[in-house]
């Protein structure tokens, strides 16, 4: 292969995962969460694949992400910006028919002002803090938020189209906060509806809740990681999801070195005998975690090999023993696992993190190569 490192993204896996999540969600609609470059998979191709799989909404964190979807022609689809940050270009979002989230009265005012500038009413979702202690209005602030939103609605500045919250511990099925968040959300929804809010959609479920908490589906579920084929509840199996990303690199060079050779920065790995080393052209500048030095495994020449010594900015080394590889031979860093390569989950477990971080951190220097019917084999970035 010619490219130093590339992330192959199977768009059929994304469409298929969305289709299976949609089935699981019963009658609820699916908002595909495509923030952060679709968890590293590439915003636009992943969004298109998710829509092909039956998603009817797209979810992003920031206004710029929503505007990019619109600029790239994803115009007819409901899109939500879920993070409320002062000073975001909300007027542009409103003009582009992007839904916004308000978790505090100041946010309602900021959106109402932006709607006046945009010359059309905003569509907003009120965010309840049901127990995560992050964004959104807690039960005590909720009545004031609902009141501010209804006043702005009466003034013609916006329409409250959604009521939402977010789980803190849905990846731990049976955690007591799941039931309590669900109960609090029900009460807050009831309060808002009694006060006169007529939402199109009420939504609470991330991937973990979509997979394990059917009673929390309401009108819409918001899976992210599961769309990309990774599970937030790894101990419960794969739920039939297919990982979409395979990270590969072409062997840069192979060399024979004597016993006692110190390898990479700091010589933290020293060869025990005469051996073949291969240089793999992917490093922490591409998103390979430096914490994975002398720890993570890759698939090279049909066998698992551990990274030998420190991960550098642009490359790392593996020890092949008496095996050899030719320059350009493909090395699989992680993937679905069916060829014997590690999965992103396996890397995450070794590093004490979550699969989300492994795929999302793969950097912009790594081209995404799309496969699957929706792709026609194109390259982006
Ligand atoms: C990221 C995000 C999700 C998706 O979470 P996953 O655990 O990846 O399924 C859902 N809702 C909101 C508001 C988010 O920001």
TrEMBL record:
Required cofactor names: pyridoxal 5'-phosphate
GO molecular-function term, one example from the UniProt record: alanine racemase activity
Keyword Isomerase belongs to the record: yes
A single BP term in Gene Ontology: peptidoglycan biosynthetic process
Record pathway: Amino-acid biosynthesis; D-alanine biosynthesis; D-alanine from L-alanine: step 1/1
Residues annotated to bind substrate: 134, 313
Enzyme type, top EC level: isomerase
EC number from the UniProt entry: 5.1.1.1
Residues of the active site: 35, 265
Reaction(s) this enzyme catalyzes, per UniProt: L-alanine = D-alanine
UniProt keyword Isomerase present: yes
Pfam family, one: Ala_racemase_N
Residues that span the membrane, as ranges: none
Residues annotated as domain Alanine racemase C-terminal: 244-371
InterPro entries: Ala_racemase, Ala_racemase/Decarboxylase_C, Ala_racemase_C, Ala_racemase_N, PLP-binding_barrel
Modification N6-(pyridoxal phosphate)lysine, positions: 35
Superkingdom: Bacteria
Keywords: Isomerase, Pyridoxal phosphate
Biological function: Catalyzes the interconversion of L-alanine and D-alanine. May also act on other amino acids.
Family recorded in the similarity comment: Belongs to the alanine racemase family.
The protein's name: Alanine racemase
């Amino acid at each position: 292969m010619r490219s130093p490192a590339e992330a192959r993204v199977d768009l059929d896996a994304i469409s298929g995962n969305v289709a299976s999540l949609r089935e699981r969600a019963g009658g609820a609609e699916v908002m595909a969460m495509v923030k952060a470059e679709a968890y590293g998979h590439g915003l636009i191709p992943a969004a298109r694949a998710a829509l092909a799989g039956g998603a009817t909404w797209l979810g992003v964190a920031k206004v710029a992400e929503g505007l990019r979807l619109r600029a790239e022609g994803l115009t007819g689809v409901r899109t939500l910006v879920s993070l409320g940050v002062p000073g975001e270009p909300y007027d542009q979002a409103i003009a582009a028919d992007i839904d916004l989230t308000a978790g505090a009265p100041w946010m309602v005012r900021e959106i109402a002002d932006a709607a006046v500038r945009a010359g059309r009413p905003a569509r907003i979702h009120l965010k309840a803090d049901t127990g995560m202690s992050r964004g959104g209005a807690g039960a005590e602030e909720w009545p004031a938020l609902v009141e501010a939103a209804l006043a702005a609605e009466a003034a013609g500045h916006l329409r409250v189209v959604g009521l939402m919250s977010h789980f803190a511990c849905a990846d731990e099925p049976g955690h007591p906060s799941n039931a309590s968040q669900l109960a609090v959300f029900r009460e807050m929804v009831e309060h808002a509806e009694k006060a006169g809010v007529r939402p199109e959609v009420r939504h609470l479920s991330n991937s973990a809740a979509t997979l394990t908490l059917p009673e929390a589906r309401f009108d819409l579920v918001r899976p992210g990681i599961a769309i990309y084929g990774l599970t937030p509840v790894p101990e419960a199996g794969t739920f039939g999801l297919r990982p979409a990303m395979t990270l590969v690199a072409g062997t840069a060079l192979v060399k024979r070195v004597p016993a006692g050779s110190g390898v990479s920065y700091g010589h933290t790995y020293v060869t025990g005998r005469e051996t073949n080393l291969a240089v793999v052209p992917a490093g922490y500048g591409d998103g390979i975690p430096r914490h994975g030095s002398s720890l993570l495994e890759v698939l090279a020449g049909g066998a698992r090999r551990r990274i030998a010594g420190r991960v550098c900015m642009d490359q790392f080394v593996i020890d092949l023993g008496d095996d050899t590889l030719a320059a350009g031979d493909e090395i699989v860093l992680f993937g679905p696992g069916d060829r014997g390569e590690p999965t992103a989950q396996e890397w995450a477990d070794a590093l004490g993190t979550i699969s989300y971080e492994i795929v999302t951190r793969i950097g912009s220097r790594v081209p995404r190569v799309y496969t699957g019917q929706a792709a026609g084999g194109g390259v982006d970035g």
